[in-house]
Design goal:
Elements: E1 8-15, E2 21-27, H1 31-37, E3 43-50, E4 62-69, E5 76-82, E6 90-96, E7 99-105, E8 119-126
Antiparallel strand pairs: 1-2, 1-8, 2-3, 3-4, 5-6, 6-7
Organism: Allomyces macrogynus (strain ATCC 38327)
Protein name: GH16 domain-containing protein
């Protein structure tokens, strides 16, 4: 980011609809949130979010933020499993650089997705809680294709779980993901 106080964030998320979504959002962070997370001057904030643990209402959103180095590459991983108690509810675990930073059990699973599936997404967004609210990034000539409006990802890997085994064993969660395209 050109100005560390801008409201810009980089996101990586699994998306089915406005309530059925799991996120990483990374950016500078508003001052009060940086203070709460204990962020140092050279750190940025990583947010892990489940939009609605009940799959219906943002009132059940769960978010956690942690401070991470602002001048480094990071490996972000989300692991999505199903509960083994017969309810087929999602359990999502977030990892940063191989370290578990959050886990959340949802009150919904593939059976409540009504035929929908997750898509895996990356984004560059202006979110009010990612910096000083009045500090909106200035793009040259407001051209979204200008170099200043781009973000660089070193790599992005999506691994489909295809064995049909839940909780920790590689396996497809029925109906949760579309098939992985060939040669990707």
């Amino acid at each position: 980011m050109r100005n560390m106080h801008q409201i810009t964030s980089v996101g990586a998320f699994l998306y089915a609809n406005e309530y059925m979504e799991f996120d990483f959002e990374i950016g500078y962070g508003a001052d009060d949130l940086r203070e709460a997370a204990g962020a140092q001057a050279n750190e940025i904030l990583a947010y892990m979010t489940t939009q609605a643990t009940d799959g219906k209402s943002w009132d059940t959103r769960v978010t956690k933020e942690v401070a991470i180095s602002g001048n480094a590459w990071h490996d972000l991983t989300m692991d999505l499993d199903l509960s083994t108690d017969g309810t087929r509810q999602f359990i999502v675990t977030w990892y940063i650089d191989g370290r578990q930073v959050m886990q959340s059990r949802q009150k919904w699973g593939p059976d409540q997705m009504k035929g929908g599936a997750f898509s895996n997404e990356l984004s560059l967004e202006n979110l009010w809680w990612m910096g000083a609210g009045e500090n909106v990034p200035e793009w040259p000539d407001y051209n979204p294709n200008a170099r200043a409006a781009r973000v660089v990802f070193d790599r992005y890997v999506y691994t489909a779980n295809t064995s049909g085994k839940p909780l920790g064993a590689p396996g497809l969660i029925d109906g949760a993901f579309p098939p992985t395209p060939a040669n990707v």
